[in-house]
Write a structure and sequence with these properties.
Layout (H helix, E strand, L loop, with lengths): L2 H11 L1 H13 L4 H12 L3 E5 L6 H11 L4 E5 L6 H5 E6 L4 E6 L6 E5 L6 H13 L1 E4 L2 E4 L5 E6 L12 H4 L2 E6 L5 H12 L12 H13 L4 H15 L13 E3 L3 H17 L7 H12 L4 E2 L1 H5 L4 H11 L4
Parallel strand pairs: 1-8, 1-9, 2-5, 5-8
Antiparallel strand pairs: 3-4, 6-7, 10-11
Length: 327
């Protein structure tokens, strides 16, 4: 299939993106960045880690998205006393039949909101990790496939760290994107107040079926990526691992570890999904640059020196993007 054909196919199949964004815009005021990243995660089959203070419409956004694409939504409040069985389900003894039967937990949904994920202990994290990575859940000696599309949106509160368990690097790496949400503007906040104190609150209508989302995912993978763009992604990732070899010696003392090959796969897939959302059948360097911070901010380890100097991963990513040659 040549680029022209791919372009026409993408333009044809991505028509729902504008409708879906408009529909979510009825309920979510502002937060275009978050809505766009949610769509990227959905189209590229990648989970999202979301950082922001409470009250920024995280739950509302994913609930509205689930309603618009006609899938099941589940919200899980992670607490220190949560057990794996509370998440995935357990075996219940049936006295009538005199046997154990499986009672499935809230993880058996399409869109999962894992609220304050860093408050749950390691056993719960490992149960969630299996669901995220393997797209399956094991209860007793049985394994169950999770229904597609399956997307985990996990939230972290950046302010309060008391009673939290830092997420292990292996689990953080499973998230395709980490997005940081800010406050709305003054004008947006006035609209938010107006909408919430009105007699009726707007709701989303079904726009697209789950099968159409799965079809769109296949089209996203067909989006053309030139070898020069692939090389650009590899160069960016290589610079996070060996900055001194990329004329970024000053970053060597600030980076403890760089992005893994999973980061480069995520950046390539997310760039294709971003091109699809922009109704293009090919990836350009600007797509890669637009998503670099979201894909890499949780995959670059900082040294004590970096933390002492208040250097952030965003600062390091910007330095790398300014140094690596754009094709």
């Amino acid at each position: 299939m040549d680029i022209r054909e791919i372009n026409e196919k993408v333009q044809r199949e991505s028509s729902f993106v504008d409708l879906l964004t408009l529909e979510l815009g009825k309920v979510i005021i502002g937060q275009k960045y978050m809505v766009e990243r949610l769509l990227i995660g959905l189209l590229s089959n990648g989970h999202i880690l979301l950082e922001g203070v409470p009250g920024l419409a995280k739950t509302l956004a994913i609930k509205s998205l689930a309603s618009a694409i006609q899938v099941k939504f589940s919200r899980l409040q992670f607490t220190p006393d949560l057990l794996p069985a509370d998440l995935i389900g357990t075996m219940i003894y049936n006295q009538k039949q005199e046997e154990f039967t499986v009672r499935k937990g809230p993880i058996f949904a399409n869109l999962i909101l894992a609220d304050e994920i860093n408050r749950a202990p390691a056993k719960v994290q490992s149960a969630l990790l299996e669901a995220m990575q393997e797209r399956q859940v094991t209860i007793g000696d049985q394994s169950f496939r999770l229904e597609e599309p399956f997307l985990v949106l996990a939230t972290q509160n950046p302010i309060e760290q008391e009673g939290t368990y830092p997420l292990p690097e292996a689990q953080v790496d499973r998230f395709m994107l980490k997005i940081v949400i800010g406050y709305p503007s003054k004008e947006e906040e006035k609209l938010i107040i107006r909408e919430n104190i009105a007699a009726t609150f707007p709701t989303t209508s079904p726009i697209i079926s789950p099968q159409e989302i799965l079809n769109a995912r296949n089209t996203v993978r067909e989006v053309y990526m030139d070898e020069k763009i692939e090389q650009y992604i590899v160069d960016i990732l290589y610079a996070t691992r060996f900055p001194a070899e990329c004329k970024l010696g000053k970053l060597s003392q600030l980076i403890s570890y760089g992005g893994s090959p999973r980061a480069s796969i995520s950046l390539a897939l997310a760039s294709k999904a971003y091109a699809f959302i922009k109704r293009r059948g090919y990836v350009i360097p600007e797509d890669v640059r637009a998503l670099c911070a979201d894909v890499l901010r949780h995959r670059i380890g900082l040294t004590y020196e970096a933390e002492a100097e208040n250097v952030t991963t965003e600062h390091i990513i910007n330095e790398i993007l300014n140094a690596v040659e754009v094709p």
